[in-house]
Amino acid sequence: MQTEKKGNRIAVLIPCYNEALTIGKVVRDYRQALPDADIYVYDNNSTDETARLAREAGAIVRPEPRQGKGNVVRTMFRDIEADCYLMVDGDDTYPASQAAALCAPVLEGRADMVIGDRLSSTYFTENKRPFHNSGNMLVRRCINMFWKRGRQIEDVMTGMRAMSPLFVKSFPILSQGFEIETEMTIFSLANNFRIASMPI
Predict the structure, then answer these.
(1) Is 79 within 8 Å of 87 (Cβ atoms)?
(2) CB of 112 closer than 8 Å to CB of 106
(3) With contact defined as beta carbons under 8 Å apart, do 45 and 65 qualify?
(4) Which residue from 50, 105, 128, 180 has the fewest beta carbons nearer than 10 Å?
(5) Is the pLDDT of residue 52 over 50?
């Protein structure tokens, strides 16, 4: 799917802490999937070679000294200008092959956030952390109960999502850590942003 046209600036956002084993592959995979995108790796005090390997793979690398994913995302959202923001993790969790498909509804003006839905595919059978699975289901049920909409949000905590500039520049991030994804989902629902989901 072709989503990158002239004037459509895509920024791939990769918050990182000690991802030396995978970050080079992640940057190369997203470069192949979105050849004209700017790929940003914000290094969150890694003690390994994450920053060097990301730079060698072609990423724009910047430091974020305040520890925690929420702090990293806050700085990324403040600093980076784009027409579509694609957030992923540096541990090679999310498929780069889905990147263009997630960005398309944002670039076409049909969505402010496209959630990469892991839970509608094989996530529960592949994930070996039982408390993680039950926590995911509990949070999902609570959020869908409070915010009734035509379609349920299937994956509240996913780290792969495409976002519009309107969402990114409106979102007042309070989280410091990994609760950032849940906060994003709640903020988008509470403020009536256009949300779409796509199985990954």
Answers:
(1) no
(2) yes
(3) yes
(4) 128
(5) yes
Which residue is it, tokens 């699975």?
A: 133
Residue 162 has pLDDT above 80, yes or no: yes
Bridging pattern class, strands 84-87 and 60-63: unpaired
H helix or E strand, kind and range, residue 78: helix 69-79
Lowest mean pLDDT among 5-9, 84-88, 166-170, 196-200: 5-9
